[in-house]
Structures are given as C-alpha cells and as structure tokens.
Amino acid sequence: MVTAAISRGSAESPTRARVLVVGGGYVGMYTALHLQRQLGDELRSGAVEVVVVSPDPYMTYQPFLPEAAAGNISPRHVVVPLRRVLDRCRIVIGEVESLDHAKRTATVRTLASEEEAAGPLELTYDELVLAPGSVSRTLPVPGLADHGIGFKTVEEAIGLRNHVIEQMDIASSTRDPAIRDAALTFVFVGGGYAGVEALGELEDMARYTARYYHNVKAEDLKWVLVEASDRILPEVGEEMGRYTVRELRARNIDVRLGTRLESCVDRVAVLSDGSRFPTRTVVWTAGVKPAPVLAATGLPLNERGRLRCTAHLTVEGVEHAWAAGDAAAVPDVTAKAAGADCAPNAQHAVRQAKVLAENLVASLQGRPLQEYAHRYVGSVASLGLHKGVAHVYGRKLKGYPAWFMHRAYHLSRVPTFNRKARVLAEWTLAGLFKREIVSLGSLEHPRAEFALAAGPPPPPADMAVTSDSSPDAHDTGDDGDGRGGGDLGGPGRTGPNDPTND
Predict the structure, then answer these.
(1) Distances (CA, A) of 336 to 313, 330, 333, 382, 392
(2) What is the three-class DSSP state of 211?
(3) How many whole angstroms separate alpha carbon 228 and alpha carbon 137?
(4) N or C: which end of the chain has fewer CB within 10 A?
(5) What's the distance, CA 271 to chain centroid?
(6) Which residue spans adopt a coiled-coil conformation according to this UniProt entry (predicted)?
(7) What average pLDDT is seen over the chain?
(8) 429-464 tens-digit pLDDT
C-alpha cells in the first residue's frame, strides 16, 4: 500500500496523489504502464491518479516506420492506442505549454481549447514525469521549410510512401524530361538510422514498383544519401558502416560523405561539393532535438537543451520531478569515460521507464531509490528486404542474418501481444503474396472531392478558363513535399491524430 508519503494531494482531492506524465512515447507510455501495474490497488481505491498528457492518442513504435513506409507493415500496427493499454490511467490529448513546478501546475492546450471560452486546461500534480521526447532538428537551409520532408511520425512515413509512388506516376505521364528527372530523383539528408533505413526500404519498394510501369525502369530512379560526417550508421561500428556504404553503392545509390545540403530552393538540391540535383523529394533525417516545451519548464537544462538528471532519473536539484528518454541527460554509470550520458535511443528509453516507475513508487512509499545502469548491447539496422547490418555483443553480422535479427529483436520489443501477432502475420503474408504498390495520397485531403461536388457549378463554356491559359496548367499538383513534405520524420499527416489512413 502507498503510505502517508503520498498524502500531498491536489486541491481537488486532498487525499489523492496525482502523477502527471508528460508525453505518450516510449518513456511516457511504459512509465505509466509500470505505474499502473505496481499501483493497481491504489489506482482502484483512488489514492493515486496517473494522468498522461500526449498530443496523440497512441504511442508510435518508431523502428517500424521504415517498414510502414515500404508497405511491409500496416500503419495501424506501428502504433499502440494509449487508452487501451493504459486503461486505469486518465488520458488527456493535448500539449503542455508551460509548467510551474513550484506550484505543481501544468498548462495544457487540448483539442477542445479552441472551442472553450475558458482557454487552456490547468492541471495540478504531485509528481511530474517529463517525457515529451524529441522533434526533428533542422538547420537554416534555404528552401528546407518549403520542400523538406521529415521522417519521425507514422503520418510522415505513410505520406512519404504516397509521395514516392506519386512521383513515379508523374514521371510516367509527363512529356517533359526535366520534370521526369526531378520526379525520379530522391535526396535523403542524414546518415543515421532514420535516413539509412528509410532510404533502404523505400529504394527497395520503388525498385519493385517500377516493374509495373511501362516507361519507368528501376535504373531510372536516382537515390542520393547526403551525410555531413565521414561515415554512416556510427552505432554499428566503423567496419559495418563501411560495409553499408558499399552495399548501398552496389544498389546504384549515390552516397555523399563529408557533404552538406546547402539549399533546396526552387526544388533544386545544392550540395556543399558543388553538385546540383533537380528534385521533388528532399527527406530530412539529420538528427533530433529535445521537445521545445522543456524550455518553458524552468527546470535545469544542459547545453543541448536536455534535462539534467541524476542516475536515479530524478531532475537534478528538483524534488518530485522525474525524466528519461530523449528529453533527459541521464548519466551513464557503466561508461568508462567520466561525465558520459546515456544515448537518446529506444534501447535506453524502455529500460529507463521501468526504473523510473520503480523509483517513483519507492519514493511514494518512502523506500530508497536505485540507479539506472545498462550497458549498451549494440545495434541492428535494416537496409531493405533481406538486407541489414548488426553489431551486437561484439559480433558483426550483415546481409540476411542481420536483417533477420533486426526483425526478431523489434518484434520482441514492440508493445502488446496483439501488436506482435499482427506484425508477424503481416510479415508472413508478405512472404506469400506480392507487395502492394498503391498510393493513397488523396487521403491527405479527404474532403476535396466532396467539396468540389458541393461547390458552385462551373462557369459557362464561353467563360471557362482553358487549361492552357491557367497559370497552374503545367503544375503537377504535387504537394507531398511541401508539408514538411511528407515529413518522414515519421510517418505525412492524413488528418489530425489519424495514423490509420494508409
């Protein structure tokens, strides 16, 4: 039972301890899930309340985004619905705008805030868990905001898939060589996991799709990977990184190391080595940064904008505040070098969430806390169907074994048995049947056809503007790369909080 140590309840309920979890990603969901399990009696009796504030009603399993973009997995199975998994927690869909930790108050803008005269929601709390995650880290590259595509959400991943197939449709139907060349050129910026895996899976998918076009061949597609450093996939080691470069170049992918994107104005990617690529697709995966809300918390941050934390996963020098994951600089007690922090990746985030929940419960019950200690075991990366690299426990794998390990590992880590079974079923069926090559880009504007039908009738024929005189007559109508493009930062948004449209 929770002891009197939890009697610091809010004004709404003096006997209730409220735990506020900011963020519904890896750390947020797993922390709430562990709290739900460890405080079952207290949650049922009302002695404790766990409130999860998340901008989306689901947690995205990001390692599966490249496979979702390639059509190997349904986007529905890349996300985990928070309300189903956290059935004993209160879920609030919204974003925390600011925190006053001294007063234990959070200002939350919900989906209903625009409709309510009262404005944002004020939530009080007793214990705070900060896990807002990260957002794409962009640079002031001219044209990037207008034409760049991210790869961090499921909406962006599916939007990018639709966009790539749409470009092939444009290339197949145009009579202009310049338009065709730009449509079939795909530039990816960033040689980390997100960039390499997304490029590998989409190139694999597009090469397969090309067989169904009468005038587009796989060799017509131009893929360019731009990386500012002298290596890619540093997580798998230098040797495996060099192998990955050789593997990609053998697939006719142009890998540019030690190169930066200087501009993408007017749909022309200009690189620091002087190369110019007319392109309708620039995918930006060059790193992430902590969520902006951290700057509005008043809590201590390091030079990179991450929360300064202790090895117990408490915020340094602050009582009743906890953090983990991408937003937290957690000391790595297993590192040989002094002052090293844990890498902001899923491997640490999931394990930190468990320790954080245990320590929070221990704090409520007046017990001592434990330190977070986990030695990094290695990394695996997919380079497309049946292709991959891995460096795990000092062992180096490549090709099919690494790809199989990649799938096996992530299948074991994706939350809930329901999701594991569905993903495994999809992989099994994908091995028996052909790939789906359909683009459903119209899902991004689901009301367009109805609005056209319900709008005013067209003008009489003698007043109608001909297609040749229209200022947009030769516009391809593609807006997939103008959303942040189909920001592969994860998966192009088809609608607010709707990852199911694929």
Answers:
(1) 20, 15, 8, 29, 19
(2) helix
(3) 14
(4) N
(5) 26
(6) none
(7) 86
(8) 988 888 887 777 666 777 778 888 888 877 776 654
If DSSP codes are grouped into helix, strand and coil, which group holds residue 47? Answer: coil
Fold of domain 144-287+378-431: FAD/NAD(P)-binding domain (3.50.50)
**Helix spans in 322-481 (H):** 346-364, 400-413, 417-432, 448-454
**Please, which pLDDT band fits residue 399 given cuts at 50, 70 and 90?**
very high
Weakest mean pLDDT among 38-52, 196-210, 364-378, 487-501: 487-501
Between 416 and 8, residue with greater pLDDT: 416
236: its two tokens: 């798998």
Q: Does the pLDDT at position 307 exceed 50?
A: yes
Share of the chain above pLDDT 70, in %: 87
Q: What one-letter code names the amino acid at 336? A: K
Q: What is the pTM of this model?
A: 0.82
* Cα 455 → chain centroid: 37
Lay out the sheet containing 48-54: strands in order across.
Answer: 121-124, 105-110, 90-100, 48-54, 17-22, 127-130, 321-323
Contacts of 409 (CB under 8 A, 6+ apart): 380
Report the alpha-carbon distance of residue 439 to residue 360 in Å, rounded. Answer: 46
Residue 424 CA, chain-centre distance (Å), reads: 21
Residue 367 gets which letter from DSSP?
P
* CA–CA dist 80, 78 (Å, integer): 7
Which residue, 342, 419, 339, is CA-closest to 374?
A: 342
Task: Determine if residue 346 is left, alpha or beta; phi over 0 gives left, psi from -120 to 50 gives alpha, anything else beta.
Answer: alpha
Classify residue 12 as exposed, middle or buried by CB count within 10 Å of its CB (0-12, 13-18, 19+). Answer: exposed
Cα 220 to the center of its chain, rounded Å? 30
pLDDT at position 372, please? 94
Q: Do the domains at 4-136+289-364 and 144-287+378-431 have one common CATH topology? A: yes
Phi, psi of 212 (to 5 degrees): -95, 5
Q: Residue ranges per domain, the chain?
A: 4-136+289-364, 144-287+378-431
User: Which of 255, 268, 24, 239 shows the shortest CA–CA distance to 130?
Assistant: 24
How would you classify the pairing of strands 90-100 and 48-54?
parallel
Number of H helices and E strands in the chain, helices first, is 13, 25
- The residue written with tokens 């002087």 in the block is 274
* Residue 198 near residue 205 (C-beta atoms within 8 A): no
The answer to whether domain 4-136+289-364 has CATH 3.50.50.60 is: yes
Residue 493 has pLDDT above 80, yes or no: no
Highest mean pLDDT among 191-195, 277-281, 297-301, 302-306: 277-281
DSSP bridge partners of 278: 268
